[in-house]
Amino acid sequence: MSDSVMPAVDVTDLSFSYGDNTVVSMERCRLDRGRSMAVIGPSGCGKTTFLHLLAGLIRPATGAIRILGQDLTQLRGAALDRFRGRNIGLVFQRFHLLPALNVRENVLLAQRLGGGRIDAARVATLLEQLDLGGLEQHKPSMLSQGQAQRVAITRALVHGPQLIMADEPTSALDDRHAEQALALLQASAQTVGAALLVVTHDQRVRGCLDGEFEMQVPA
Amino acid sequence: MTWLRLAVANLGLSPLTSAVNVLLMALGTASIVLLLLAGSQLSETMSRDARGIDLVLGPTGSPVQLVLSAVYHADVPPGNIRLEEAERWADDPRVGTAIPLSLGDSYRGYRIVGTTAEYAELYGAGLATGRFWDGALEAVVGSAVAQSAGLSLGSSFAGVHGLEEGGHSHESHPYRVVGVLEPTGTVVDRLILTSLESVWDLHAHETSHAHEHEDEAGGDHADEHGHVYGHEHGHEHDDGHDHAHERDEHDHDHENSHDHAHQHDEHDHDHENGHDHAHERDEHDHDHEHGHDDAREHDRHDHNHKHVAEHDQPDPDREITAMLIRYSSPMAAMTMPREVNAAGALQAAAPAMEVSRILQLVGIGLDGLSAFSWVLILTAALSVFAALYGSLRARRGDLAILRCLGATRWELLIALLLEGLLLSVLGVALGFLTGHGAMELLGGWLESTRGVALTGWTWIPAQTLLLFSLFGVGAVAAAIPAVQAYRTDVARTLAEG
Fold this sequence. Notes:
The complex is a heterodimer. Chain A is of the alpha/beta class.
């Protein structure tokens, strides 16, 4: 199986627990490249934890997580950090832009940490596409919530990751901006042929994406 | 570069805190640098000035005062000694070089030292222009004196009674500059050298002047000017109101060392005949006839003949302020000082020992100040720690996102260390600049007021060590926050928002 036909996400027999409390438990979840999927479920079903597992930020108790063909459980330390930086773009509920850096520097930092190659032209183009053209020198504190959201998305996409994961990307946005952000995520993912995984309880998202994966609160 | 840029940006987020930390660090660093520079240059200057002088002979009293006055010219001399006494030791085979010093006058705060040309040689001070003294009232001035008092070849100046400015001026007997010394960076630069005889002569005159003054106003010059020849003056005051009496007194001194019977004759003579030029000449002839066989004594008498003939001047006692000794063999250090001190008439002080004693005393003060400076540095380190640690909670999200973007744990650790290091580097740089600048300013002030030449534009090896240990302080202050950053639980931080 060559790299390009490997699924972006391939999870089998996954479980994760805090102490005795099992938080995530699933037999199988799979997302192909170029496809998008919503991960839905009631509060407390472990959606965010699942996303953290897929990003390699925490380790599962059992099971295997293959991202773009790479078994995350085989990677440790710096190698895991580098793999994440290079291949996964993350967008969070809170935007977590670095307050000390301006918009442009925030995006450039992701590019550098994600692959080390600085492509200022791509940064400029992306910012332009997201209506952030005039804000490059602005500090995050000067941005509106919507602008900050779009900067966070730009930052997640800028280094061309093969898997884009977003945690409640639309929860803070009104209908118009939610639609825009979702459309941007999809369009960006399609442009680079990346898979898109969106964790959400936002009903507006359901139906916009190629597929759905519903999580249950573990028994 | 990414991390350095991020560290700079983060420090820029709270400019006031960062500035205070940098200033605290700079303040502590500047004080330590200043103390280091002052301490090392002081001890260097002191040992340079004492180089080549193994022993100082002077009157009994404080050995520190003797060394300070005779070697560094930084204190008033404890008194005078008889040249003969000193020369007895100078003739000792253990002595290689013996240089007499006679102090008492100054010009614009620069001391006039009656000595021999060997004194300049001691400091390797060659002549920049002119020659060494030949006759009476010829002077060779040190480079600093020439520069700041505006003296050059051929200029003349009147010495002032006493070692401070503002004393009675010997205006009727000005010195003439016949030579200027090359700069040496030693005490000689700030001295005016002349022959022993010039100093003696001037004080012989001074004696008569003082007398005239006393006659007129009944004042006491000896006390007024703290003159080191005060002993002489005192006697005059006690015994004499006219020249004849003064002569009596001097004759009495001679009597002690030379010829009892003869001096008594003279004494009688004086009383009978009063003061009379011709008679005084007779009297000196008398001395010659009765044969003081010491060659130097003869010279001196000749000298005084001229004097007496010209100025109706009594014969002053031959005294010097101190004698600098250089041993012919280092072995002399074992025996000679003890012998001199045991003999009782003189005191022998070894500059090396007294210097280390002085530096030890100064060192206690410097150590205290230096401890205080380290307290400042410690405060700066704590402040850096508090600032970084305090910002850590607010920045946990940033750290987590950096990990999501591909940063490793170690990179976060380095990022925090860099912030601490950056603060200390800025503070240390500012501190070094300030410290050196302050030293230079202080040096200039000390040079103009105290004659101690210190400079800020120098680098001593201890500073290199200081530099790196201060960088270390910044890194240590950042160490705990850095470890916290390393340990950031990314998933939990993100989940908590």
